[in-house]
Amino acid sequence: MATLPECETLKLERSGSILHLTLNRPDSRNAMSLAMVHELRSVFAAIRDDTGVRAVVLRGTGGHFCAGGDVKDMASARGQKAEDGSDPIFELNRAFGHLLSETESAPQTTVAVLEGAVMGGGFGLACVSDVALCLESAKFGLPETTLGITPAQIAPFVVRRIGLTQARRLALTGHRFDGSEAFWLGVVHDFAKSGEELDQKLGQVLERIRHCAPGASRMTKELLLAVESEPLDELLDRAARDFAGAVRGHEGQEGTMAFMQKRKPSWAEE
After folding, report:
1. 3-state class of 113 per DSSP?
2. Residue 110 needs a FRET pair 20 to 30 A away by CA distance; which of 12, 40, 187, 251 works?
3. Tell me, which fold does domain 10-210 have in CATH?
4. Rounded to two decimals, what is the model's pTM?
5. What does the pLDDT look like over 219-252, one tens digit per residue?
């Protein structure tokens, strides 16, 4: 079991195979500070090889997911002068891009639970989740151009999530929208009208994750993410090798046997 880092901007709670990771800066609607970025990256690095963690649930405190980047951090970086010639604003922005890449490629299944503000960086974080649920009343948007800046690190992940045409519309108009439109756009996979219903839907998703073989889930996520970047023949060769290994492996044998015996496989958790 991985040792989780001490965090000031996050709440961490492990429940069996599920890690609940909560953004915890309620006074700023969980705006993404550099400290939060570093802590999130540290958590995902710590659990990367922990096969006991099947899923990570991302949400925020105080009725909001994340209001975007911390403007105070940006202003502070603008006034700094790095002695080594590096640009503090570049480093701040690029660190968030690394976080998005690392969250997207995490071997665990990531589930984003979205309430209140889901803006800018929060929108980007939602777009790299494997499963996203939201309240219908949640407010989404890419407000960067209305602030005179660009959605620099977020843009590629938004385009991959909802397509270039819609991403252009959202980014170039600063359009804000609710959970039902987020569902229609494909940002989220389901939405709820109340907090109680949202928690019920989260419970259903986690139940399904617990009934999937953890090793097979990790290999499947890696395969899906490689579709855009790996030549097809090479990808299919690798997929066939992984498939053969899975069929001969413990999970494949146990899954087949459990199906024939009409019982739950050993990895299925209640």
Report:
1. strand
2. 251
3. 2-enoyl-CoA Hydratase; Chain A, domain 1 (3.90.226)
4. 0.94
5. 999 999 999 999 999 999 999 999 999 999 999 9
